[in-house]
C-alpha cells in the first residue's frame, strides 16, 4: 500500500528565512511524485512532478528534489504570499494519486 | 478557461437526505476524480473515471455513487447522507490517468455539512 508522510505538520518562518519541507514515501513502482499548493478555501494547485531520483524542478522561490525514499520542497527567501498548505502526492501502480496530510506554512513579515 | 467547476459551493443536508454534487471540466481531459478532504486525514480518493464510460472505486467509496455523464461531466451522489460524510469534496481532472505528468486540475470544492 502506498504511503506518504509529510513533515513538519506546520512551519512558521520569518520572511527571508529559507527552509525545507519533507515528503517521505513508500510506493510500489513510483510513477510520479507531485507537489501541490493549497490556499485556504481553495482547491490544490499543481506545482511540480518528479519522476526519478536525482531529478529537480524549480519555480520562483521553490525547488523540489527527489531521492528514492523522499522528496524535499526547498523554499528560498520566502515571502508572506508563500503562506499556504503544501501537499505531496505519489502515483504508484494504481491510477490515482495518494496524498500526504500536508505541511501548513506561515511566513511572517 | 473556467477549468474545473463544482456546484454547489456550500450545502447543508439532514441525515438521510440525498443530493448530487456536480463537476464539469472544459479542458478536454480524459480522466476525472472525486476526493474528500477532512482535517487531519488529507485528501482521500472516493471514485475516479479513467476515461468516458468507465468508473472505479477509490479508497473510501462506501455511501457514494458516481456517474460519468459525458467527457466533461462527472457527478457524485450521496443516496442517504450521514454525519460522517460531512467534508469538503473536490473534483479534479487530468489529461490521462495513465500519464498524469501535468498533475491534476482541481475545482474549488463543495463544503458539505450533514446534520
Helicity level of chain A: under 10%
Q: What characterizes the major β-sheet of chain B?
A: 7 strands, mixed
Q: DSSP helix count of chain B? A: 0
Task: Determine the N-to-C terminus distance of chain A.
Answer: 41 Å
Rg of chain B, alpha carbons: 13 Å
Choose one word for the global shape of chain B: globular
Task: Examine the coordinates and then state which fold CATH places here, giving the name of the CATH topology of chain A.
Answer: Immunoglobulin-like
Are there runs of chain A of 5+ residues with pLDDT below 50, and where?
A: none
The helix/strand order of chain B is EEEEEEEEEEE
List the helices and strands and how they pair.
The complex is a heterodimer of chains A (109) and B (115).
Chain A lengths: L2 E5 L2 E5 L4 E8 L6 E6 L6 E6 L5 E4 L2 E5 L3 E6 L8 E7 L7 E2 L3 E6 L1
Parallel strand pairs in A: 2-11
Antiparallel strand pairs in A: 1-3, 3-8, 4-5, 4-9, 6-7, 7-8, 9-10, 9-11
Chain B lengths: L3 E4 L2 E4 L5 E7 L5 E8 L3 E8 L6 E2 L6 E5 L5 E5 L8 E8 L10 E2 L3 E5 L1
Parallel strand pairs in B: 2-11
Antiparallel strand pairs in B: 1-3, 3-8, 4-5, 4-9, 5-6, 7-8, 9-10, 9-11
Question: How would you explain this protein's 3D organization?
Answer:
The complex is a heterodimer of chains A (109) and B (115). Chain A is mainly β. Chain A has one domain: Immunoglobulin-like, CATH 2.60.40.10. Chain A is built from no helices and eleven strands. Chain A has strands at residues 3-7, 10-14, 19-26, 33-38, 45-50, 56-59, 62-66, 70-75, 84-90, 98-99, 103-108. In chain A, the strands form two sheets. In chain A, strands 2, 4, 5, 9, 10 and 11 form a six-stranded mixed β-sheet that branches. A five-stranded antiparallel β-sheet of chain A has the order 1-3-8-7-6, with no helix packed on it. By secondary structure, chain B is mostly beta strands. Helices cover 0% and strands 50% of the residues of chain B. In chain B, strands 2, 4, 5, 6, 9, 10 and 11 form a seven-stranded mixed β-sheet that branches. In chain B, strands 1-3-8-7 form a four-stranded antiparallel β-sheet, with no helix packed on it. In chain B, a hairpin with a 6-residue loop joins strand 5 and strand 6. The model of chain B has no long low-confidence stretch (mean pLDDT 93). At the A-B interface, strand 5 and strand 10 of A face strand 4, strand 5 and strand 10 of B.
